[in-house]
Structure formats: structure tokens, C-alpha cells
Design goal:
The protein is 9% helix and 37% strand. With 556 residues, the protein is mainly beta. Among the domains are: 105 residues, Immunoglobulins (Immunoglobulin-like); 230 residues. The strands form four sheets. The chain has a 31-stranded parallel beta sheet that branches. Strand 1 and strand 2 form a beta hairpin. The longest helix has 30 residues. It is globular. About 17% of the residues have low confidence.
Amino acid sequence: MFWDGTKWVDQRAPASTTRPKPPRERRVRDWLATLPILLLIPALLLPVVAASASSPAIYTSGTPAAGARLIVTGRGFTPRERIQLVWDGSAARMPQARVNSSGRFRTSFVVPASAKAGSHTLGAARLGGFGGPRSFAPRTYDRAPAKTAYTVVVADISVTVPSTTALAAPVKPSATPGQSTPTGAPGAKSAPTVAPATAGAADDPTSAPTDQPTSAPTSAPTPDPTPKPTPKATPDPTPQPTPKPTPKPTPDPVTVSGDCGGSLQSQINSTGAGDVLDLTGCSYSGSFTISKSMTLKGVSIDASANDPGITVTADNVTLDHVKVTGAQASTFRWDEKCIVGAGSSSNSVSGLVIKSSTITRCGYGGIYLHFASNATISSNKISNVVYAGILLSSVSNSKVLSNTITGVGVHGSGANSNNAYGITATQEDGPHSSDVLVQGNTVSDIPTWHGLDTHGGVRITFRDNTIFAVRRAIFLTSSPTDAVVDGNDITAPTAAQQGDCPSDAPDSYCKDVRGISLFGGSATIDDNTGHGFSSDRWWNYGGGSFDAAGNNPRIQ
């Protein structure tokens, strides 16, 4: 009830005169209203069910600048399949990866140095074209493998390469000097000021009249002094930057076609620094030294007994499509290294490139680097050597890529307690080798010792290599630091291969086969595949800490 100014008014709603519907009629109406909602629920759920199905996806981490390395992880792929990464549709210089049993993979790649600023597409494609696990087709690091073809890109992601010019963050302007800032709330109005009233004569009729005030004489205004002008400071002259001299362009290398009848050492000595000496089709005998930056191409050398074939003592030397044949391969001889990179503890050899060359019959080893850095050894064929295919002693920041090495220690290994190595990163009289990538190589036929090896190396990576008919495939010893072993395919020696032991090694020695061995130090060992190993022969642990992620080890 409320009072409307004239009477009390009842606020309650008037009683309804409509007869309520019977309960059965109301239930039928409710069912009819609910039925369309029930029919709509399956349609709403279908997108959710479809979205929950797992599909391949890839992710990247790192700064996507040109020349920078990005980590790539994938999920939702078919277990055991091989994946080829592609950059803007091209597989050139892009890595491959094997998916683990959980449908995941992890690899890395270098953003092409030619990548322009802007958006690019990184894709993951299924591979096709290999003939089986024992085809052992060597992979080529510098370009897409000749026997590998990807069928379809199953996942991709956009990668934005930033501009090389950094954008400065905008600076918030400060308040102009002398400009006041209101402290009250925006839009607030100040209250008007009311002056107090003054009582006058009308308020008091009995008050006496007020005397008229006597005005004081007005004094003359005092003139303001004329301001003195403030002298302006003479500005200091703006210093001009010292002009930098314009660098002279580096001249293009000159290719010199050598004289097959002339002295090889004389032609090397007379070649200009940075130039190419092309001796394709020419053959020489002896031992030769390169002591300047240059490229030697196409030459064939028969090395002298007890001497190396080629010795490099300068930076930025390239040996391209050379062939070096040693004097013999049945007896261990320290000085019979077919190619030597000879640095020192105070002056390492830097930038040595040995590529697409053939090296064979060496009484010590195929390629021997001592105190070297930033070397690249790629796509070479090394065979029939006594002690080591490729030996890196105190070598840093280097790559060993896509080489084929076979027949190490088949003869003469008894002189070194049957030691023989396919590729090893080690040290002799200097620091441990460090930051070396050994990737995409094929190593075989080493009956007495190790395929891939490091003695105390620092951040040595063995990745995506193929190893077979080797007594101990991968051996990490002398407490390496942060070694990485991933994506390697290893096949144990057959019974016949184990029985075909060198004459100076007992048969039982060659039958002691191992897959991956760790003795001290630390390592990450992931996603390697073994063929023909028993469970007690695949993994050989002699101490150290390791992270075996993914589905490693996998034995087939």
C-alpha cells in the first residue's frame, strides 16, 4: 500500500481470472519446446570432436634472423616415419628428422643467409624413395639428397624474418616546461566563493552618520627600470665526423689452369693469395705444402713413403676434388697422413675446407687436423687406412659432413693395440676438441675398434650418421662434456663379419660388439636406431650422466 496524495492504493496485482492449464498440457508444451534443442546438440558437438583429432603440427624456437639457428619440434606425426624440413618449398640445406614412437621429433636448421625480411613458410614433409633400412644411401649436407624425395607437406608454419634495422621504441613526451598540470578530477567545477555581507545604516536606524573619509594624496608611479638584454651565448661549432675511408672491394679469385708438366710446388708458390689453381687431370708424386690462402683443385697426388701427401699451414685454404693416394696401408706409420692441417697452440689453422676428394691407402690416416678451427670436411671418400679415417686433435667450431669412410684398421691395427677410428674428436698435446658437428656420414668396416669417437670432447655432436660392420659404433669416453648423440642408424656386424677378424687380433675380440657406449661425463642420447643388437649389447654404460629422451634406445 502507498499514499498517492489522496488515498491509499493497493500495490498487489489483481487476481487472475484465467483458468490455469492442466499439468498434462503444460508437459506436452515443454517437450515440444525442448525437442529442437536436443536435435541441435549433435551438430554443436561435431566441430569439437573434429577439433580434438590430433593432426601434425610444427613449432619453432629461437630468433628467426637470416643465418640464425632455429629449433624445430613436431607433434602428431606418424611414428617411425622420416620427415624432411622444407624452406619456402625447397629442401636444399634443410635437415631430416625421424619421428619417435610418440609421434614427435626435434631437430634444428639454419635460416638461409639469403632469406629476405618478411614472411616465409617452414614445412615438414613425409619422405619417400629410400629402398629400405640397409640401403645406406649417404645423405648430402649441402643439398637435398639425390635418393630422397618428399611426397607431401603435412604441416607448415609461417616464420617471419625481421628487418636488420632495429626499430626504436617510441618515447613518451614529457610535459612542456612552465605548463601546469591540473590536480583536480577531470571536469570538476570549483565552488563559487560568497563574500560575507556587510551591515549598513539601513540595518540600524539609530546609528550615527558615518564621517566622509579624507582621501590620501596619490603618489606618482615609480617607473620600472629598463631591462638589460641578456647576451646570447655563441654556439659551439658542431663537430664534423671524421670520414671513414671507403674499403677497397675484394677482387674476385682468379682461376689459373696449371701446367701438368711443371713442378706442383712451384705452381702452388706462384699462385696469388685467394686464387684457384686448377690442375684437373694432372698427376704428381711427392709431398707438397700450401702456406698461403688459395684453392687447389682437381690434382692427383701419389704421396711418398713416410711423408704426408698435402700439408696445409695457412688459413682459408680449400682442397676441392683432389685425389691423394698413400704409399701403403698394411703397416702403421706415424708420418703417412694423406692430408694434414698443421697448426700450433699459438697459431691454429682456420677456415680449411676439404671437399669432394678421394683419399686412400694411408699408413696413418686419411685427414689429420691438429690445432685447427672453423674447418669443414664434406663429401669426401676415405678408404683403406690403418689408424683413422678423420682425426681431429684440438679442433674447434668445425663440421664433418656427408663423408664416406670404410676399411679402417683392417690391416696394421695391431701396432696400436688394435685401435682404429672412423671419425674421432680428441686431443693429444693441447685442449680437448670442442663444438664439432659430425653429421650425415657413412662409416663401415672397422672390425677392431670405434666408428665415431670422442675422448673428452666438449659439445661434440654425432647426428644422423649411418654405421655398420663396426665393432663399437659410437664411443664416448674420457668424460666428454655435453655430448649429443641423436638420429643415428647403427647395424651390428654379422656373425661372418665378426669372425673375419684381422690376423693380429683374436676372434673373441672382434665379437665384443657394442652399439652406444658412455664412460663418464655428460651426454644427451636420443632417437637412435639399432639393427641386429641384443639388449645387452646395444647400450654400454660405464659411468656419467645422460638424458635419454624420446624413444631411445630403439632396437629393430
